[in-house]
Amino acid sequence: xxxxxxxxxGIGKEIMDSAKAVLLAIAAEYNHHFTFEEHAIGxxxxxxxxxxxxEDTIQACKSADAVLLGAVGGPKWDSNxxxxxxxxxxxxxxxxxxxFANIRPVKGFSPLxxxxxxxxxxxxxxxxxxxxxxxxxxxxxxxxxxxxxxxAVVDTLYYxxxxxxxxxxxxxxxxxxxxxxxxxxxxxxxxxxxxxxxEIVEEKMQEYPDVTVxxxxxxxxxxKLITQPNRFDVLVTENLFGDILSDEASVLxxxxxxxPSASLRTDGVGMYEPVHGSAPDIAGKGIANPxxxxxxxxxxxxFSFGLEEEASEIERAVNECLEQGYHTADLQIQNxxxxxxxxxxxxxxxxxx
Amino acid sequence: xxxxxxxxxGIGKEIMDSAKAVLLAIAAEYNHHFTFEEHAIGxxxxxxxxxxxxEDTIQACKSADAVLLGAVGGPKWDSNxxxxxxxxxxxxxxxxxxxFANIRPVKGFSPLxxxxxxxxxxxxxxxxxxxxxxxxxxxxxxxxxxxxxxxAVVDTLYYxxxxxxxxxxxxxxxxxxxxxxxxxxxxxxxxxxxxxxxEIVEEKMQEYPDVTVxxxxxxxxxxKLITQPNRFDVLVTENLFGDILSDEASVLxxxxxxxPSASLRTDGVGMYEPVHGSAPDIAGKGIANPxxxxxxxxxxxxFSFGLEEEASEIERAVNECLEQGYHTADLQIQNxxxxxxxxxxxxxxxxxx
Lengths: 353, 353
Ligand SMILES: CC(C)[C@H](C(=O)O)[C@@H](O)C(=O)O
Ligand SMILES: CC(C)[C@H](C(=O)O)[C@@H](O)C(=O)O
Prior knowledge:
The structure is a homodimer of 353-residue chains. With 353 residues, chain A is α/β, with parallel strands linked by helices. Chain A folds into 2 domains: 1-101 and 269-353, Isopropylmalate Dehydrogenase; 117-252, Isopropylmalate Dehydrogenase (3-Layer(aba) Sandwich), CATH 3.40.718.10. Helices cover 41% and strands 22% of the residues of chain A. The first copy, chain A, has 12 helices and 14 strands. Chain A has helices at residues 12-30, 42-49, 55-62, 86-97, 120-123, 161-176, 192-205, 218-227, 239-250, 291-303, 308-323, 341-351, and strands at residues 2-8, 35-38, 66-71, 101-107, 127-133, 141-147, 152-160, 181-186, 212-217, 234-237, 260-264, 270-274, 326-327, 337-338. In chain A, strands 2-1-3-12-11-4-5-10-8-9 form a 10-stranded mixed β-sheet, sandwiched between helices. Chain A has a two-stranded antiparallel ribbon with strand order 6-7. A two-stranded parallel sheet of chain A has the order 13-14. The interface between A and B is large, with 56 and 56 residues. One 3-isopropylmalic acid (IPM) sits between chains A (87, 90-91, 243) and B (189-190, 219). One 3-isopropylmalic acid sits between chains B (87, 90-91, 243) and A (189-190, 219).
């Protein structure tokens, strides 16, 4: 299997090294052959190629079986013009690969749950899968421009019916293999696009009679994630709502640094990245938390390569590491041992097999 | 002063009666003359006028000094076509009156703070003023329609520069009379409208050198409201982001039923309504919490009539009521006394003066 590594900016390089080490150990253990090829993206690609998404990065990703991404962005490039911003690389690669389904599991780890901003009785037993449409909506709609001599501005929320259908299908299919409950989030009381979304959900319900469906308005969903996080199973929504709600959900468990994500298309090719950012303030210090990246590699094994056993093995090894009390500087465990990126990766490796 | 009452649907009528009683008591105490005129809006206006916003409601509101709104909506009208939905009345009256600034104070009440989903050390000392643009953006932009024979759909996020300027000014002015910190929320890494928004904030900073400004992306803001609610002072943002974030913020203190809101234009005319909805499930039972409505009336005295002392008097009376242990069914107070809408209104009246 050909895997493209896009470390990106900030702590991206350090955590990517960890994920690669874990994948090599898994390959040795289970007799798989993974090849890795590193390419530039984001701010570092702006520095080296004057382009946040160089053409050879796109080509390499297009012919790969899966892509691992570290993180992009940092203050260094914050005042760049729009086309020379690190995020352009991220948005560009999603679009170029057609990765329309962003999948984010939100589930706490018992040794870390005490760090949640929520009361324990609220957050405990929460296990949410957020599915966000990733290549449409306000992010890519045209026109997106100044008007009337700079005295007005317009962005466009555009969706094709087929784009809504495939992500809604993904929502139903995911609910079917989980707890069979789908929360569809829209703003149907205001937006025409949301009314079309809701119609499609209603149509699809017939095809998935085993899944119960609830329509929740995006503002109400933002409340309910906080007051009743354990009432969700799968949540499906469009791009911008998904951006906001998945980030909101990501802090509920109290350990953002642990969360992986997957961005998929229908044929199994996917890009995997941690939910956290590039953390420029701690880059190069050897203290970054590699778990979000390692768990993203596990999702790659599961979703792109169908290697369920290997994926679970990694997840178990990470869990064990926490149970043993090992954690990075961003986490706290009572009577735990705080260690750096390299050390904690070694412990994960020891816990494998 | 001419006040238009729009009770609307569900518990709207009950809580409006409470607010009116409190205003009459204040008028007697301070020798003011308030006249009240009731008009139809929302679902009940659909029932009586086949129109969620009858023309005479608009006219009455236009010539009034202020408007009090209960709540609109309910399952009865949920499957109506778009133009016969209760929300159309709400959106329509905002637009018709030009109420561009929605103001939502989010601050807990000590006797109720234990009900917050957040840990006490996280929520305590939080005092946020959310300012949301209310008459532009995706809510009103054209085109908003089906395309390509129903196989695509478009909504439009449109803002005039002047619309952004006036709400951003409101943000700075509000910060100036509070703790002098303004959080401006946008999605400038993706949206052209947000880039214009951010430019305007940067320009205005020169005019308000006493206010510190922080730009936060909407996804990051959704996180920070949960992890560090006490790091906010004034938050200003556009319509849809404001809808989502203000609802998110409204559950942080654990007592949604207490929160008031104001929707203003520059000349002081405003519409005041509680943050909660029409609660059709408990309508007519006499158990609704009238505090959000009563505190909205207090905001009316403050913002539209400049009656600061009278407004504070109401707020004090409500607070005292809670300190005395009185609460409605939606709230809990340890060793408190649960009472109905009428009774709790009487206690507020007793606490006045
Ligand atoms: C960096 C930004 C463009 C991106 C997005 O909004 O999609 C990020 O917030 C994310 O969620 O991956
Ligand atoms: C009812 C709905 C149209 C409205 C809005 O989205 O503005 C409501 O959620 C609000 O915040 O007042």
